[in-house]
Amino acid sequence: MAVASVGIGGPVEVAVVAAAGETSLGPGSGGSSSNSSGSGCCSVWEVGSGASVAGYRGGCCAPRGLTLLGGEHLLGAQLGKACVGAWELQRKDQLQQKIICPGPVACLTAAPNGLYILAGIAESIYLWEVSSGNLLAILNRHYQDLSCLAFTDDSSHFLSGAKDCLVIVWSLYSVLQVEHGQSPEPRHVWSRHSLPVTDLCCGVGGPLARAATASLDQTAKLWEVSSGNLLLSVVFDVSIMSVTLDLAEYHMFCGGLDGSIFQVDLCSWPVQRERGFQSEQENGKIFKGHRNQVTCLSVSTDGSLLLSGSHDETVRLWDIQSKQCLRTVNYKGPITNAFLILAPANMLNPDSKPRIPLPKFSRHLHSTENMDNSSSEGLTLCLGLHQKEGGDQEDSRFLPFFIP
Prior knowledge:
40% strand, globular, 404 residues, 5-stranded mixed beta sheet, 4-stranded antiparallel beta sheet, mainly beta
């Protein structure tokens, strides 16, 4: 994905925000606070100056329902509707395409390599291939509605969390290679939460990454994806609604039901597998300012800033070291999505166009017989490293996958 840069200043880091209502186009020139004006799906503003970058209009996004696809498109699950809106990043007008789904989308994510899209619809996970629009798999291992989905940074695995208290780790290789008529087996099923899972986050490292999960059971947990082992469980005084890790994975940030944000040190000594977060003793590690549950958290690439979104209809930008709130942006509705990214080049260049337009996405499961009968001259896609189950990387760097 090409990243935009301005002069000698380097890449531009932006905040992408969506609310369940009208959205502003940014904090305004003042940079400290703003009242919403205009309507749209989401707004994009530059982190350093607060200047508005873009506004994408048309519908409201569902929680955990906004994702960037391949640095060229923005996808947003429409709140309460059985469709996903798609915008070309350089076009700041009404959405250009709607992806019709079998039901309302509870959560949505795209693979970092831009090849696949995952959607949580009721208790099922739907997997589409971006290049062809084929629906490749429908996974039914959860017993209640999905709440969150996330890929590992190399796109080799993905994780799903649901209201059934389970977090499931899936190997993309295993899902794509399953025999026709059979259900793929997940790599791990984590059942240590006692109430619905509200959020999850994957660190860096592909299948060797660590993953953080949050739950209404007042805990946040840290896991190792490769082994499935539980590394840490932290107990809080309130339910945890959102969780994220900084890029170096020194800290885990947890958003509470009461509006507090807790900073958990992952490198503290001595190491404890289970510990409680004592608010009175760790007051210097709490961000205070939100008046309602914190639904979204994201850390800047340099690890110095924290972005938070809340049901109090505000987004706040914090200095992590001092815990000071640097900027507050007001919206006309609860914040459903908020994250920090390095702005793709297409977002800042109005003359750019996607290399390949999005296809029409199928609502029906693609038959594996059609794939088996594909011509051998089809296009072979690289799915990235670490695709094979069990960590054997040799001879599994590329998975031949033919587009009919």
